[in-house]
Write a structure and sequence with these properties.
6-stranded parallel β-sheet; 7-stranded parallel β-sheet; 379 residues; alpha/beta; Rossmann fold; 14 helices; 39% helix
Length: 379
């Protein structure tokens, strides 16, 4: 059996979200070494050095032109190549056009359906149209949470058994003890990790943080006589996504510009210590397909404060403190609670270590491969 895979999302230097998902699946697939099973990875550019090396049963195929690659270059090659794959898998929303080969796609979430105003017009058009086409024509649709599965079935009126939930795992990170000094982080801090975009609700997080620093400015939901947290900062890790200007302006708007530190993209080797030394990890997101940083934080002994919406309760289980993402007061209240209650922190850390054991990339890859093999049998 020959499995074709769109490897472009994995073939980038800074991997987040779908890129991380695609890379980890490729890494796991290559390690399986199953008899009579071959993989061909299709790319626009030559493979990066961190991708698995070629061997018998594991080959890369670089094709062009790069422009309209999914609409033209890929389906053209799949149609005219005599040694075509038996099944094709893309870890993105975008299936190749006009392909007669059984195809599986991955749809992480439908945030563009729930929050269309948070996307650029061109991106929104592409997501709406290409995802609809891909889901309609795919033989199987992978997603990463039950919440996302429900959204896909409801939005695209597809059958329940066509949508397969495969929870992601946790990437391996190697410790780097100089991380805190490298980024000039002093004292205690709350940590956020994620792309800078409106869906992540970072502006409300910054406003909630400002209420912790200046409780006298709080309105109604918190005790204005509460003691200000003068020795805590907010560290925001993540590269710029889109519509991020309001996020960058928020610290000045709420009077905490000297207490909020933006680190941009941080390499994997620097993340473990950032998690380990943080007071807590905060992700008050409006919507998540999964939320991998939540598990990373738990793995490295960092208690988490996350939203009570979409897939996040599936990820956090009973090992997280939940907030209403639309309530700045609730976010501030829960952050202050976890900062001041050491027993609660230790309890969440212990539960977090148990929660992460439920997820692994090996399990994700095996479940994905099982479905791909079943598509060939059905065909």
């Amino acid at each position: 059996m020959l499995i074709g895979i769109d490897g472009n999302e994995a073939n980038v230097d800074e991997k987040v979200g779908i890129g991380e998902y695609a890379f980890e699946l490729l890494r796991q697939f290559e390690q399986f070494r199953i008899n009579n099973l071959e993989f061909r990875i299709y790319l626009k550019n030559k493979p990066n050095k961190d991708l698995p090396e070629e061997r018998n049963g594991w080959k890369y195929r670089v094709i062009g032109p790069k422009k309209f690659w999914t609409q033209f270059a890929l389906p053209f090659d799949l149609f005219f190549n005599k040694n075509r794959p038996d099944v094709f898998f893309t870890p993105t929303h975008y299936a190749p056009r006009f392909s007669s080969i059984p195809t599986a796609v991955s749809v992480m979430d439908l945030s563009y359906i729930h929050f269309p105003d948070l996307f650029k017009r061109y991106d929104l058009y592409q997501l709406n149209n290409w995802t609809a086409y891909s889901v309609r024509n795919a033989s199987a649709v992978f997603t990463i949470s039950r919440a996302s599965k429900g959204d896909i079935i409801k939005t695209y009126k597809t059958k329940d058994d066509k949508v397969v939930v495969t929870y992601p795992g946790i990437k391996k990170l190697s410790d780097m003890s100089e991380a805190s000094s490298k980024f000039e982080i002093k004292g205690k801090y709350i940590l956020f990790v994620g792309t800078l975009q409106p869906r992540k609700n970072i502006v409300r997080l910054i406003e909630a943080f400002s209420r912790i620093c200046h409780p006298e400015r709080s309105e109604g939901s918190r005790d204005s006589s509460a003691k200000p947290q003068n020795d805590i900062s907010l560290v925001i890790v993540g590269k710029k996504g889109w519509l991020y200007d309001e996020i960058l302006e928020a610290p000045s708007k709420f009077g905490v510009e000297k207490r909020v530190k933006f680190l941009d993209f941080v390499e994997d080797k620097d993340l473990p210590l950032l998690y380990k030394k943080a007071l807590c990890f905060a992700l008050p997101s409006l919507y998540e397909g999964f939320g991998l940083p939540v598990l990373e934080a738990m793995k490295y002994g960092c208690p988490v404060v996350i939203s009570s919406v979409s897939s996040l309760p599936e990820v956090g289980g009973d090992a997280a403190l939940y907030v209403d993402p639309l309530s700045v007061g609730d976010i501030a209240k829960k952050l202050e609670l976890i900062i001041n209650d050491n027993d609660l922190r230790q309890s969440l850390i212990k539960k977090g270590h148990e929660q992460v054991k439920k997820f692994s990339w090996e399990k994700t890859a095996k479940e994905t491969l099982k479905t791909l093999e079943e598509l060939v049998i059905k065909d």
